[in-house]
Specification:
8-stranded parallel barrel, single chain, 5-stranded mixed β-sheet, about 750 residues
């Protein structure tokens, strides 16, 4: 303890009125700074301190230490005969021990007027910098600024490890009509746990995690964590060039990953080494992570988030996640994250009825309830909620350098009657079923992300025929709506139809041939991505290879032929982890991938290695062939060669690069060899060479090949002036390019 003299203050400050005392003790005071701290009074400056459980409190001003009067209930007060408010500290006695503290109530607000103005208007595009917990130095003192939006609260207190989870000493102040509450707490820093103790309108209390927390405890623990970033990015070259070419005119081949189960037990930093090496070797241009935002239940795979601004702590810190993204970028691999703005869970420590009233969710329970998942939808019509989500989209792109957002369950957002029966929904103002607020929100989100983050792509998982998902927001369609503004849309129709076709026995495929060709009827209505995603290999659907008919050899042959057909088809590609080496078991997040299939001890190792080798070659040849990606979204990039050979189970088409260079893709989905199969081709190519054959021996096939260049005959065939005779291996896809 200091050797400075200890004095008593002059007569104590005027006693707290009963109302102020009661409101402070009950946590319902909207302006604790008006009562606590230092305030000029006749004859000096009055000091009032709230320190529950303290035995004594002293005021420290320079070398002078002054006892404060114990007013009961944890209040201490006194008056110093000085002309102005000084810098001061507190010396508080607990259990006979003195602790020196800074008084939170001597500080001015640490949030600026411009921030409050933008929050009030719902236009704060960097909301994560204004709300939440931010370590800083304020008025020369190190601590953390806490801010939270809770407009219906009667009072808010911050609590955490630093106060034994009792927030009595830390009531926050209301910053007016914005609904924001703020408190700067000296001494709180990186790694400290915290929550908000909210007094509901009915006076009861609820303790909540911070909606804007940028770091959380490892589930099932639910506290928010104060954090600051120390990561130094090394991906400047990637970031500088990622906007050089529009994604629709670039190679885009995506490996979809559930990070916790890719290799169970790996941290973000371990994944940075192992996943990066694996994806680079496989040749994918991008990875897509199932949602990494914090979520309480691992079995939701991240699709029911509670921490929208925090990467899940299961595998490390936010800086660890940045390290993973950085490593992938340095290896030339883009990063997409699944982003869930459709709904959130009802956990009573998270967003649901956050401040005692519906806040993030609509007030109308018919609109608030999400019938499919037992969750709550967001109130897309409320400007602060839209701001929370729009800023969140930018946050992942700006703070974590992610290159794309795949937006989950868009259809459930667009339709008021989605999964609802008659009487369970109300129409929009025009009497329609469209959720106009959600349409406006998606347009705002896309426009904001594309403006702020050049080179980023947004992708819609949208399963209906909504017009203009990938149309610009300022271009109205036939229905009068502007486009939603996404860059790509998952082609769910292609996925369902092609999987339905390939699951039939070859002898029956002739009756389902249109399921293989129908996608080209609407191929240019949107900018499409072809997804074989996690949804297709769970819940009893089986792995991709197990969907295939026939014995093990035929299953693998079908699997390989299907993948090469997919890679050649107009549209970008996405493949869920494990399907690149033909894992036979259905994916489970509990046990992860069957990596043992690739080990030397596995009798079928060569079979699985063969499929993985094919996927590597597909990706590397795809990257090197502009015909497969340069004109994905325009009819000039495609021409049918054979669309009607249903009895043969054969499809063939040409893909064209922007300079006219062709690639011929032929799939024989029957189990017989077809020799000298005639195909029409352009007369401008003198010879063709087989560059990829899924029946090659090193992929595990029978090695029926076209080893020599093939020269077309000048015989008109179909719409083409020349005819090429090709040997088609059984259950195989060929790619041929000009020799």
């Amino acid at each position: 303890m200091s050797t400075a003299a200890v004095t008593r203050s002059r007569p104590p400050a005027p006693r707290l009125d009963a109302e102020s005392r009661g409101r402070l003790l009950s946590g319902t005071h909207h302006d604790p700074h008006a009562v606590l701290g230092a305030h000029p009074v006749p004859g000096g400056v009055a000091f009032t301190v709230l320190r529950p459980y303290a035995q004594a409190a002293k005021l420290v001003v320079g070398e002078r230490v002054t006892n404060l009067h114990d007013e009961g209930d944890g209040f201490f007060s006194g008056v110093l005969p000085i002309a102005s408010i000084p810098e001061y500290a507190l010396r508080v006695t607990y259990d006979g021990r003195d602790i020196d503290l800074q008084d939170p109530y001597r500080f001015t607000p640490a949030l600026g007027e411009l921030d409050l103005h933008l929050i009030g208007e719902g236009r704060h595009e960097e909301l994560w910098k204004a709300l939440g917990a931010h370590p800083m130095t304020h008025q020369g003192v190190a601590g953390t600024r806490f801010t939270v939006w809770a407009p219906n609260a009667r009072g808010v207190r911050v609590c955490g490890e630093f106060c034994g989870w009792d927030g009595s000493a830390y009531p926050m102040r209301s910053l007016g009509s914005t609904g924001v509450w703020e408190l700067f707490v000296p001494g709180v820093d990186e790694g400290d746990l915290y929550k908000f103790d909210i007094a509901r309108p009915d006076g009861t209390h609820t303790v909540r995690a911070d909606p804007m927390a940028r770091r959380t405890e490892v589930p099932p623990a639910t506290a928010s964590v104060v954090t600051r970033s120390a990561h130094v990015w090394a991906d400047a070259a990637w970031m500088a060039r990622r906007a050089d070419r529009p994604v629709c005119q670039a190679p885009f081949s995506v490996y979809e990953v559930h990070l916790p189960s890719w290799r169970i037990g790996l941290s973000y930093r371990q994944l940075a080494e192992q996943l990066t090496d694996y994806v680079a070797d496989a040749g994918f241009t991008h990875v897509e992570f199932l949602p990494v935002a914090e979520h309480p239940f691992g079995g939701s795979w991240g699709y029911q988030a509670t921490g929208f601004y925090a990467p899940t702590a299961r595998m490390g810190t936010p800086d660890d996640f940045k390290f993973l993204v950085d490593a992938l970028h340095q290896a030339g691999i883009g990063v997409i994250v699944d982003w869930v703005a459709a709904h959130f869970p009802k956990d009573d420590w998270a967003l649901a009825a956050f401040d005692g009233e519906p806040l993030y969710e609509p007030r109308d329970p018919r609109r608030a309830e999400h019938p499919d998942w037992g969750t709550l939808t967001f109130d897309f019509g409320r400007r602060e909620v839209r701001n929370f989500l729009v800023a969140n989209a930018s946050y992942w792109c700006e703070e974590f350098h992610v290159d794309g957002l795949r937006v989950d369950a868009v259809a459930s957002m667009l339709y008021l009657d989605y999964s609802r029966e008659e009487g369970q929904w109300t129409p929009n103002e025009h009497g329609g079923r469209e959720n106009l607020d959600a349409v406006s929100f998606l347009q705002e989100m896309n426009a904001t992300v594309y403006r702020r983050c050049p080179g980023v792509i947004t992708i819609a998982e949208e399963s209906t025929a909504w017009d203009g998902v990938t149309r610009a927001t300022h271009h109205a369609g036939p229905g009068g709506f502007g486009g939603l503004g996404f860059g790509l849309k998952w082609n769910m129709g292609w996925m369902h139809d092609s999987l339905e076709y390939i699951q039939h026995e070859p002898v029956h495929r002739q009756y389902h041939h249109n399921e293989l060709t129908f996608a080209m009827v609407y191929a240019y209505s949107e900018n499409y991505l072809l997804p074989i995603s996690h949804d297709e290999v769970v819940h009893g659907k089986g792995a991709l290879v197990s969907k295939m008919p026939g014995d093990w050899w035929q299953q693998r042959a079908n699997h390989r032929a299907y993948l090469a057909y997919m890679w050649a088809h107009p549209g970008k590609q996405l493949l869920f982890m494990g399907q690149e080496f033909a894992q036979g078991a259905e994916w489970s997040q509990e046990h992860g991938l069957d990596w043992g299939l690739l080990e030397a001890s596995c009798p079928a190792r060569s079979d699985h290695i063969g499929v993985r080798r094919l996927v590597c070659d597909l990706n590397h040849q795809y990257r090197a062939a502009p015909a497969l990606w340069e004109q994905d979204t325009v009819p000039a990039g495609f021409a049918w060669v054979e669309a009607d050979a249903a009895q043969d189970n054969v499809v063939a088409f040409l893909r064209y690069a922007a300079d006219g260079t062709p690639l011929l893709a032929v799939s024989n989905f029957s189990p017989v060899v077809r020799r000298d199969y005639p195909l029409g081709v352009p007369g401008t190519v003198g010879a063709w060479r087989e560059t990829l054959n899924t029946d090659a021996a090193h992929y595990g096939g029978g090695d029926v090949r076209n080893p020599d260049p093939l020269r077309p005959a000048p015989d008109a065939t179909g719409a083409f002036p020349a005819r090429l005779h090709v040997t088609l291996p059984p259950l195989a896809t060929l790619w041929l390019r000009p020799a």
